[in-house]
Design brief:
The protein is of the alpha/beta class. It contains 13 helices and 11 strands. The protein has a 9-stranded mixed beta sheet, sandwiched between helices. A two-stranded antiparallel sheet has the order 7-8.
Length: 401
């Protein structure tokens, strides 16, 4: 094959000999074998010299139109732009030396036809004059990254949320409790006149009896799920349901994006495909339409459900006892304040003075009487260092219905 390591005059002579041999009547394959080059090389130079006398062909292979376009900015003006940028960087009172500042300086210096700001920006990029660094994009963490066993797909998580502010024509208020599993996309929707803690417990119990128990159940900090906020050490009805069934409740702050992304996306789909798509006569008609949507959704996501972690069977003969002693774990995701402190269950702890305005996971161990705080960072999801452990006195007060 032809090699670029040969001297320039040798390469050009070889190219001329290839074309000359073909024009003498030899086949291109024969010429390629004779001069030990590829057939593509012969074809390229025969096409390049087509219709030209051999003594008038530019065998260097340079583009006939030159390497710069006719409408490109002159090199002298590009050099002037670079010098002006350096001057502005060193001596500008504002300290601005970007494309906009360079164009203003050209106009001030009397340039009659200065390049556009975008053209100046492209010149700076092409000439390598930018000293800034491009944003480094890191891959997103895996789903459920804030819980190690959930991220490794060893357990499943059911995420619940409420859609409010819906009104059927005629004035009937409607609220919907939605549930969606993280790995298996197992969905459930229960429209009703109003969502209460008792209705959520009933819906969760019905759903888990049929499909089995997940490892985690995740909610936001609404009092509907967590319980009243005005009293410390309060564990609501939904929390007690999860603890008695061996499901770890997880409470995430609503202002933090990402933790409830899956269920919020499902909320939007439900509203678009069920609520806004049809005009419902009454609540029964809405429930029937919602049930058809949920059944179709479950059928479509059956493959994901088969690949998801296995769910535990619901215990036979189980009945809820609100007065039972609290046992198990409750997890709260929080963001520290300016002093590195967080508030959990009505108490405030300074977790770490060096971990300010950052995410932490607080694990309330009701069996061991401790709260463990772990550092969370999306860029390093696998590194979750334990920051502090504090003793915690498990409340023994009677649950007030």
């Amino acid at each position: 094959m032809e090699t670029s390591a040969w001297p320039k005059n040798t390469r050009e002579t070889l190219r001329r000999q290839l074309v000359e041999a073909v024009r003498q009547g030899h086949s291109q394959r024969e010429v390629a074998a004779r001069f030990h080059v590829s057939l593509a090389t012969v074809q390229r130079w025969v096409a390049y010299a087509h219709g030209q006398r051999l003594d008038r062909v530019d065998w260097s292979g340079q583009p006939r139109g030159g390497r710069r376009a006719e409408n490109s900015t002159a090199l002298e003006l590009e050099d002037c732009i670079l010098r002006l940028r350096q001057q502005l960087k060193n001596h500008s009172d504002l300290g601005e030396y970007g494309a906009a500042a360079i164009r203003r300086a050209l106009v001030d210096q009397g340039c009659s036809d200065p390049p556009a700001q975008r053209t100046i920006a492209r010149i700076l990029v092409r000439r390598g004059a930018l000293d800034g660094q491009r944003r480094r994009r890191t891959p997103p963490p895996p789903p459920g990254w804030y819980l190690p066993d959930l991220a490794r797909r060893r357990v499943e998580l059911d995420s619940g949320d409420v859609v409010e502010g819906l009104v059927i024509k005629g004035g009937q208020d409607v609220e919907v409790f939605n549930l969606l599993s993280l790995h298996g996309a197992l969905a459930g929707s229960w429209p009703g006149p109003g969502v209460t803690a008792k209705s959520v417990v009933s819906d969760l119990t019905e759903h888990w009896r049929v499909w089995g128990l997940p490892g985690y159940a995740q909610f936001d900090n609404d009092t509907l799920f967590q319980g009243p906020h005005q009293y410390p050490d309060t564990f609501g009805r939904v929390t007690r349901l999860c603890l008695q069934l061996g499901v770890t409740p997880v409470f995430v702050p609503p202002q933090e994006t990402g933790f409830q992304a899956a269920i919020e996306s499902y909320n939007g789909r439900w509203q678009g495909r069920v609520w806004s798509r049809f005009q419902h006569r009454d609540l029964a008609d809405l429930c029937a339409c919602s049930d058809r949507f949920v059944a179709a959704h479950r059928q479509r996501t059956a493959a994901r459900r088969e690949a998801a972690p296995r769910r535990r069977p619901f215990p036979a003969g189980w009945e809820m006892d609100l007065g039972r002693k609290l046992a198990g774990r409750v997890i709260y995701l929080r963001r520290t304040d300016a002093a590195g402190g967080v508030s959990v269950l009505g108490h405030h702890w300074v977790v770490s003075a060096t971990w300010c305005h950052r995410l932490v996971r607080a694990e309330v161990d009701l069996d061991g009487g401790k709260i463990r705080f772990y550092a969370l960072r999306r860029r390093e999801p696998k590194r979750q260092l334990q920051l502090m452990t504090v003793p915690y006195r498990v409340p023994t007060k009677r649950f007030h219905d």
